[in-house]
Amino acid sequence: MDRTNVGERAFAAPPAAETEAIEFVRFCHRRRRVGWPELYDEMCAVAGRGLYHGYGSEELASIGIGFGLFQMPALAVIVAQVVAEDVERRRRSAEALRATLAAEALRATLAAEVPALVAVAGPGLATEDAVPRVRSVGSEPIDVGASDARALRIAVAAGA
């Protein structure tokens, strides 16, 4: 064996990480949401108990998961990929949740303030006339029901 290129092979990225190997790392990461090297310990425990489809160390080696010292860098690359995907998925989920919560808060605020605006506008003004219906298409609002709506002037404290 030529010792000059052993280190190069060990630190090179895997040629094509098999889907099954990535799924194994995802399985272990779902069990215990940690990064490298703690996830390495979890993967060893899963392999030792055959918790992933009954695969032991030999079966995992056949799909590209090696637990030896020289296979660790390639395994760390797969772990980094899986953890990065999970972080990105969580970030997108959090953004969607924040947007939904902001929209719900806006709806609740408007629902509470519209009756107050109608009361200020006067008794002869119907609810539909007091608040013009606005529909948005894309990013530009289109006014569809404000042809006879009166302008309302309300005193608002600075900073509100």
Number of helical elements:
6
Please tell me how large the radius of gyration is. 30 Å
Written as H for each helix and E for each strand, in order along the chain, the element string is: HHHHHHEE
Ranges where pLDDT stays below 50 over 5 or more residues in a row are none
The structure class reads mainly alpha
The largest sheet has its strands arranged as 1-2
What is the β-strand count?
2
Distance between the termini: 75 Å
Name the helicity range: 55-70%
* Oligomer type: single chain
Described by strand count, sense and barrel closure, the largest sheet is:
2 strands, antiparallel
Summed over residues and divided by their number, the pLDDT gives a mean of 75
Q: What is the strand content?
A: 5-15%
> How does the overall form come out from the CA principal axes?
rod-shaped
What's the SSE blueprint?
Elements lengths: L5 H6 L7 H13 L6 H12 L7 H6 L9 H50 L5 H4 L3 E4 L2 E4 L17
Antiparallel strand pairs: 1-2
Helix pairs in contact: 2-3, 2-5
Structure notes:
- The chain has 160 residues and is mostly helical.
- It has 6 helices and 2 strands.
- It starts with 5 loop residues before the first helix and ends in a 17-residue tail after the last strand.
- The model has no long low-confidence stretch (mean pLDDT 75).
